Amino acid sequence: MKTQQKVFFTTTIILFAIILSSCLPGGGNYSPLEPAGFFTGIWHGWIAPISLILGLFNKDISIYESFNTGWWYDFGFYMSIIAGFGGLRLLRKKGD
Which residues cross the membrane (predicted)? Predict the structure, then answer.
């Protein structure tokens, strides 16, 4: 690999890690006055595997935001968890 490719790859990985870590559940971004909503639930469901791994090393990070709007957050979270693991494929018709 060329030096330019290595620098680009390293920079991309670092930026990706910063972007993901800035919006992980349990990071202190939400409060009872400003809870996480439906779209945040979708995002937290998509990044749940990453949150799980990072939560092993940092006790402040969890896979689920405790300050949330309730049913709508749960719906978005579980919908993206199911979709992320191929569960929504069961709803599609198989083509011939």
Answer: 6-24, 36-58, 70-91
